[in-house]
Structures are given as C-alpha cells and as structure tokens.
Design a protein that fits this description.
By secondary structure, the chain is mainly alpha-helical. It is built from eight helices and no strands.
Length: 199
Amino acid sequence: MLQTEAKIAHKLGLTPNHISIVGFILAIASALSYALASEASLWLLFLATFFMLASGFCDTLDGIVARTFQQTSAFGGFFDSVLDRFADGAAYAGITVAGLCSVAFGGLWGTTVALTALIASMLVSYTRARAEVIGVKMESVGIAERAERMLILAVVSIIGYFRLEVFGYGVALIATLSIVTILQRVTHVYRELKKKAAI
C-alpha cells in the first residue's frame, strides 16, 4: 500500500523526515482552520478535515519511505512521534479556542470536553511510550489509537457542517474512547508486570 507514492517521494528527494515535516505543517493548517471556524464559517470544517487527512497520509507515507528505502533511524522515529503529539494537541487546541463543542454542551462544558479530548489523546500516546520503556509491548492495545481518533474527528467534522452539535458529541466520544484506551493500557501494563514478577 502506498508503494507508488513512496517511490515518487523518494525520486523527488524527500526523506522520511521531510515528509514528517510536511505532515506537521498540514496538521498545523488543520488546527488553524478549526480555530478560525465558527457558526458563520462552518466551511472551514471541510478545510480542517482535508488538511488533517493529508497530514495523516504523510504520517503513513514517511514510515513506508523509511522502510522501503532503508532510511529508518532512531532519531527519525523519535522526531516523527514528537511531531505527531504536537499535531494532536494543536488540533484539539484549535477546537477549544473556537468553542466548537459549545453548541452541544454550552460554554463551560464544551471547553471541558475539548480539553479532556486533548489531555486524553496525549495520555494515550504517553502510556504506550512509557510502557515500552519498561519493556511492555503495547501494539494494538486499546480501542482508540491515533488513526481511530483522526477518523472519528474527520467524520464528525463533515457532519458538523450540517449539524454543529454533532461535532461536539463526536469530540466527547473521542475523549471517552481515549480514556477507555488509557485504562486498557494501564491494566495491560499492570498484568504484564505482575506476570514478570511471578516468573
């Protein structure tokens, strides 16, 4: 999958880090689109969705280029992960600034929902990183990894153009699923460490 695109990127002289940076710029453009969106300019939700999905495409492509052309490196993986976390945080920060969840929940609760989604999405990634540091594999543990969260946000952004309150409910769903994922990962780490202690 995406091998043709990877070959094109390689021929253009793009390294995985270059592609990661392009994806990061697109993610920031998505966050700004969310931040500037309002009930009077809901078309920006389409723009935010486009930039977000394009950023996700780059996030997939950089890894394929790295593996296909033997350009993987420890720094490249670290750099890509840092940019991903920044991009995730920026998206929910933009949503918070614009008050896009307020139609569904009111001002205070709308802000709370958006901030919860922001914090929980950061913790989903942190729990995996911290677990792997102590030797616990976390691949496929949890129901709402980054790809799932992006997909939900993309869908509710499009629906939000027609029914803005649905957007708020979608962000609340992301927050809820992220918290569930965190709990799943904490439980998984506890069980794995308990098994190792019993050996």
